[in-house]
From TrEMBL:
Keywords: Acyltransferase, Cell membrane, Membrane, Transferase, Transmembrane, Transmembrane helix. It comes from Jutongia hominis. It is a multi-pass membrane protein. This is MBOAT family protein. InterPro entries: Ac/AlaTfrase_AlgI/DltB, AlgI, MB_O-acyltransferase, MBOAT_fam. The keyword Transcription does not apply. Belongs to the membrane-bound acyltransferase family. It is found in: Cell membrane.
Length: 471
């Protein structure tokens, strides 16, 4: 079940909201826990056992950490944290990476190994990181142990952000799990946030994604350089509106149930450096790796060489986290190299450039990165990237390029406008000025228009993927 489906919009969500607000407050976490299990089981019933197992493991580990700390048994607390990490990462590794490593083993040693072909449990990369953050936060003293198993289960399986984030660290919602307050204002904000996200997903990401699919399906020899760049531009916009749209819907749903989730995207395509891009893109993932990997490794506190090694580890893991394919690993390495070069060689050079050149530099490298990210077959990736840079293909530009550009020009302009931060400033100035009646009227009108438009599009279209479901 996905948020951008008629089943979710008109059956599942209304039923859950009704049950949540009709029942007494003491039952709210139980409602969320059970509803989340139903939501998760809708696609993969058997893997409900897996998420319940992870919940139990980390609940027990958290209790053990708290007990050991209270009785000054530091080694016991460390052992509990390590057990939690080993079990969680083992499950993630087995289901997500078993075939990947078996294939590498075959290529390196020649030993014939069969493939397990296990279906990937939805959201396992996200909830694994969340459950690990709980035991670590309890050990560090950043959060108190959660004694209520139902409340902890609601945190782990919370359906608004279960399957594609944002990654919610336990310490960020610990108080909200027990003491959140649902208000009409927060619920209203949640509806607006959700509808913005739904519009991003259905009206922009899905539509421009079809352009990318059309270009990606072409044989490399028939592509022109301009068409290849048009395809990468389409994917660049699709993945932003797809993933940020999902995050907006998750944040909006959280608000409807009284939660305040952190923003996961802050107009990353407005960045003027790769460093800034990764401060704005998938913020919750970057924050998790910084706090639970980079800083514990020593961060930038142990010299330049150690800092470069730490960055290399983090970006290798970031790439691997996205999927069990070599293109994702190379994509992570690509950004690790760029960030090291930028941090130690180009920092002052970039600052001296005009803003427009800084932005051009950033988006050029980001789009090259997406061209690598989008192809799981490295032969296809290499051929496509070669065409982008005038090597091979069917020349520079042709009639097909102009046709595709003219057919999708308005959509591309709308997407480009929406991906830059000044679009928000422009909208707030002319349609949503703070503290005015115009703001409220425009918000209501926009929600209605988006809902009707999205429903009409969902009824008539079968193309409705979520790109980050596979991660």
């Amino acid at each position: 079940m996905v948020f951008s489906s008629l089943l979710f919009l008109f059956r599942f969500l209304p039923i859950v909201l009704l049950a949540y607000y009709v029942l007494p407050k003491k039952w709210h976490n139980l409602v969320l826990f059970l509803a989340s299990l139903v939501f998760y089981a809708w696609g993969e019933p058997v893997y409900v056992i897996l998420i319940l197992f992870s919940t139990t493991v980390d609940y027990v580990a958290g209790q053990a950490v708290a007990y050991c700390k209270a009785n000054q048994k530091k080694k016991g607390a460390i052992a509990a944290v390590c057990c939690s990490a080993v079990i969680n990462l083992s499950l993630l590794g087995f289901f997500k990476y078993a075939d990947f490593f078996l294939q590498i083993l075959h290529q390196v040693t020649g030993i014939k190994t069969g493939q397990l072909h296990l279906p990937l449990p939805i959201g396992i990369s996200f909830y694994t990181f969340q459950t690990m953050s709980y035991t670590i936060d309890v050990y560090r003293g950043d959060a108190k142990v959660q004694k209520n198993l139902i409340t902890f289960g609601a945190y782990v399986s919370l359906f608004p952000q279960l399957i594609a984030g944002p990654i919610i660290r336990y310490k960020d919602v610990a108080k909200q799990l027990d003491q959140r307050k649902e208000t009409v204002s927060l619920f209203s904000q949640g509806i607006f946030h959700f509808m913005i996200g739904l519009g991003k997903k259905v009206l922009i990401a899905n539509q421009i994604g079809m352009l990318w699919q059309q270009i990606a399906a072409m044989k490399t020899g028939s592509l022109t350089t301009a068409t290849a760049w048009l395809g990468v531009l389409a994917f660049t916009l699709q993945i932003y509106f797809d993933f940020s749209g999902y995050s907006d819907m998750a944040i909006g749903l959280g608000a409807m149930f009284g939660f305040s989730f952190p923003e996961n995207f802050n107009y990353p395509y407005a960045s003027k450096s790769i460093t800034e891009f990764w401060r704005r893109w998938h913020i919750s993932l970057g924050t998790w790796f910084r706090e639970y990997v980079y800083i514990p490794l020593g961060g930038n506190r142990k010299g330049i060489v150690r800092q470069i090694v730490n960055l290399a580890i983090v970006w290798f893991l970031t790439g691997l986290w996205h999927g069990a394919y070599i293109n994702f690993v190379l994509w992570g390495v690509y950004y690790g190299i760029l960030l090291v070069i930028e941090k130690f060689l180009l920092k002052n050079v970039l600052k001296a450039l005009p803003a427009i050149l800084q932005h051009f530099y950033t988006m050029l490298l980001v789009m090259v990165g997406w061209s690598l990210f989008s192809w799981q077959d490295m032969t296809d990736a290499a051929g496509y990237i070669k065409t982008m840079f005038f090597y091979g293909g069917a020349g520079y530009i042709n009639d097909q390029t102009f046709y595709l550009l003219l057919s999708n020009g308005i959509l591309i302009l709308i997407a480009l406008f929406g991906s830059l931060s000044w679009s928000k400033d422009w909208c707030n100035r002319y349609f949503f000025p703070e503290g005015t009646m115009r703001r409220e009227i425009c918000r209501i009108v926009l929600v209605i228009v988006l809902l009707l438009s999205c429903v009409a599009m969902l009824v008539n279209s079968s193309y409705n993927p979520f790109l980050y479901f596979r991660f």
